[in-house]
């Protein structure tokens, strides 16, 4: 009986931990977060090395952001969603952060290193949008 | 002892259910999904009614997509991430779908109704990017 109670207690603890994790990260719950979207416009003569971007550049920048970074994503442009329109962007990297001021404070002292690394994977000058997830 | 075992069984079932749900929706697991990003460029004289967009337009379009739609998000543009550059987009609505062909098949017969509704919240012609989440 005693070992049964101990086992029950352990299982309950595991459950509580699991429920706790679920609460903090339900599917698609990005509401209220700040998104920093780094968008690379398509165009003639533009090049982009996705492998370098995914394995070197994005992890390097993400590593500067500490616990302010909730997640980051990378997407590859496929087409315009409007028939007969050119592809708008070849790639987009997105950092989801809790706080814009902390993001800026992390990036500012490393701006030169980040810019220097961009030449390693693309000749495109990115457009950067700071936005707030409202839904 | 018997009631202890029954309780233990119930707690275990609850745990398994919870773990099962977690597996299907881990945080940020959008990899492999298709994103359709509808981006509204900022500019002089441009207007955008976020409340209408969030409560009427996006739910209407999302409702057309059925089980192909994994989630949709809405963001509000705050600033350019590059100093002294203008805000690129006032708003972006994003549909995360499993399959582009099914998305197009759902939208095509409703294109006129969707376009007609755009005039209810903005005078901006959106840029639309179809992309694949690679990370």
From TrEMBL, chains A, B:
Keywords: Signal
Domain of life: Bacteria
Signal peptide (residue range): 1-20
Gene Ontology MF terms in the entry: oxidoreductase activity
Cross-referenced Pfam families: EthD
UniProt keyword Cytoplasm present: no
Family matches, as InterPro entries: Dimeric_a/b-barrel, EthD_dom
Span of domain EthD: 50-122
UniProt protein name: EthD family reductase
Biological source species: Chryseosolibacter histidini
């Amino acid at each position: 009986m005693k070992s049964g109670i101990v086992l029950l207690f352990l299982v309950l603890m595991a459950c509580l931990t699991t429920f706790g994790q679920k609460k903090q990260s339900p599917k698609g719950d990005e509401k209220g977060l700040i998104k920093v979207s780094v968008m690379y416009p398509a165009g003639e003569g533009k090049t982009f090395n996705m492998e370098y971007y995914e394995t070197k550049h994005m992890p390097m920048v993400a590593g500067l952001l500490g616990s302010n970074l909730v997640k980051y994503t990378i997407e590859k442009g496929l087409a315009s969603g409007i028939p007969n329109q050119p592809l708008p962007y070849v790639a987009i990297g997105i950092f989801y952060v809790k706080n814009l001021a902390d993001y800026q404070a992390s990036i500012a002292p490393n701006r030169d290193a980040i810019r220097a690394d961009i030449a390693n994977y693309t000749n495109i000058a990115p457009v950067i949008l700071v936005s707030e997830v409202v839904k």
